Amino acid sequence: MGTIRKSIDLAFPRLMVWETLINPQDLATWLMPNDFKPEVGHRFTFQTDPAPGFDGTVHSEVLELDPPSRLVIAWKAGGLDTTVTFTLTETPTGTRMDLKHDGFVLRQLPTRTILSVGWGRILRKKLPAHLTSKGAAQ
Length: 138
Description:
alpha+beta, Alpha-D-Glucose-1,6-Bisphosphate, Chain A, domain 4, six-stranded antiparallel β-sheet
């Protein structure tokens, strides 16, 4: 109940996916506008539209950085105090991205459900579309 797990196989090289994960301009395109820096301890925010009980700001911090395989960030917003882990693994056809959003408590089940749907849409549609457009531009 307390963890969202999503995985996607991407037909792109791991280094390209990694760059899209740690570049603030790329993150802004497929996730949210931000002031991210790929440095452990860096505190940053994601900005999105407010919703009931949520002012639109996700307060984050880079907790772990293991290029080009793993990024762990704090994700604090609207009463949440959670972590998001992105793990990238090379595959014969490109890269597998595993996402784990962990730390929800029982009273946050509705928020967890909303975020689970959102992460699914982002990983199935927005991230692949961004990678495709980035690959075409190279």
